[in-house]
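Pasting as-is:
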Amino acid sequence: MSDLAALAQTLQMALKALTMYTEAHPRSQEALQTLGSQVEAWLGRQPHLHLATSAGRLFVDGAPVEANTLHLTALQRQLSERQISGFVIQRGVQADELSDCAAWADRPILFTEWYAKALDAVPKLANTHGAGWVVRTQEDRARYYQHFALSALERPNVVGWHFFKYLDDPPESKALDNFGGANKGMFDVEGQPHRPLLDRARAVNREVYPLIEFFDKRQTSP
């Protein structure tokens, strides 16, 4: 656990340094060099390192981390704030690749494909393909939109989103990513709106800038 805590500390410090300084700044370079040494030592014992976060917990190589040290908690929070659900570092990784990975972690984010698919869609759709979550009803899809959008507005490095997509995939679809149809759209296959989704999306979208101000003030308040 001491090795993991040390690695978590160096990764956390590298992310923090790249938030405060440019990548070329001496403090960033020092943090990245320390991170490289820690990762190299870890990969000398194991072929890869898989870090992931879920439901407020940190996982290493698929196992939940039970320890609750300062640096492990801080790392889990930093990854969650950047909406990084996980990453894998494999043996043979180069120093410049680690630097790029850490630098990209705090770059502006634009969400370009996200959605949930409801089982109650009419006509009946397979909903077996595509990246979106499967939920029970159109009302659940609407709640998912609001939850996702509010979480995005809370993150200072998220610059926007593009919901995928306008129309549902029809049941006669044959492509690999939509075979049998999928409830991905704001509108059904006939062009009729999924009213719960549209209404809840509109409620959030109309208040985007006041919501950003609210979240910013909450994060900066003592």
